[in-house]
Amino acid sequence: MKPREVLDLFGRPRTGLSRAERTLSNTLTVSDFRGRARRRLPGPVFDYLEGGADGERSLRDNRTAFDDYHLVPSALRDVSGTSTATTLFGRRYSAPIGLAPTGYTRLLSQAGEIGAATAAARSAVPYVISTVATTSVEDVVAGAGVAPYFQLYILKDRGISRDMVARAAAAGCEVLEIAIDTAVSGNRLRDRRNGLAIPPRLDAATIARIGVKPHYWTSMISNPALDFANVRASASAGTGIAGGSIAEITSQFDPTVGWDDIAEFRSLWPGTLLLKGPLSAADALRAKSLGVDGVHLSNHGGRQLDGAIPPVRLVPEVRAAAGDDFGILVDSGVRTGTDVAVALCLGADAAFLGRPYLWGLVATGPRGVERVVEILTAELSRTMQLLGVTSIDQLREEGSILLRAR
Length: 406
Ligand SMILES: Cc1cc2nc3c(=O)[nH]c(=O)nc-3n(C[C@H](O)[C@H](O)[C@H](O)COP(=O)(O)O)c2cc1C
Prior knowledge:
- α3 crosses α19, α7 (112-123) packs across α8 and α16 (281-289) packs parallel to α17.
- This protein is an alpha/beta fold.
- Strands 4-11-10-9-8-7-6-5 form an 8-stranded parallel beta sheet. It has a two-stranded antiparallel ribbon with strand order 1-12.
- Helix content is 48%, strand content 11%.
- It is globular and about 70 Å long.
- It has a domain at 37-64 and 97-192 and 222-377: Aldolase class I (TIM Barrel), CATH 3.20.20.
- Residues 49, 62, 100-103, 130, 132, 151, 179, 276, 298, 300-301, 303, 331-334, 353-355 line the site of flavin mononucleotide.
- Flavin mononucleotide binds next to loops.
């Protein structure tokens, strides 16, 4: 064979793309980004991103839960016009995929919350900013040009939580998610064994690690200090949590939070209200009776109650109990477009990602996040076509025929 024929056989290198863009387009699965993120981060920081609580049983089960379903396609249908576009809480999105709230994002990548929100806006998918974000909601709106959903922890100091909610509304946020799975902080053994301090201390162990990942540390040192920018902006002097350590913030988690608090925040919040983290149809129904608009089913990616049921398994019973006029988002373990299809066939409105978009952000900043969404959307679209459906509505309507539990 001539060299030109060999090139034709294996595909010519794409010209006109920068090296970074070529690497991105050669990253074919979301899990490929995980390896790239691992190579960039110091071990303890990667463990913070990856880890689950206690023995990490829920973390493992979240993945295998998706393997419990088989797809049953309908053959010989015209699927040339397939679209993944969908409407969620009155807004049109490119796909039923969202980016879940993650705390301390600038510990992982200096692109941080603004990088993630910008990528979400460019990809036309929703992004949720965390109470414990390292960028304020106002700065995220200014940087990304789109208001995110806001995730609230109801803190012991209710004044801080109420003020954050008022700021989120003023910044243009339309959806509030109250996380209810954090009465206390989960037992993250990896972080405890690593002695993870947030913000990182510049002690002997840290200095030793700088030699191993110099790029990471140079970017940490040359960028603004990490703190809980959202909380800080609402904390009045003397609350004792303006310093920005993880210990200060987790000491603000409130084990007394109850349904009365949900009723109060329902009366304060003018927009769409969701609960993040309920894991039963009974709790979803109780939420609905208080005027809550939907649930974000989640076991916090296995980072809170270890042994908690994988949320995807609960979707059918929550949908059956709460009816069609109730929003159901689901996360924990979603890694492929086929996982998204399974969640929708079971009755969810959208599937959200935690770690996967952080892998993309760490690997290549906002473009990495965009590529993660692009890969999942392409996988979802292909799965829909091979199943014989052309729209998200059809996928959900025919879900019970298209899916079979093992
Ligand atoms: C590094 C990290 C930080 C997180 N921080 C928060 C948070 O501040 N608030 C919250 O409600 N959930 C938080 N979560 C949970 C995510 O919102 C989401 O429920 C979970 O990551 C989904 O599982 P997955 O990582 O398997 O996709 C965090 C998850 C990770 C991985």
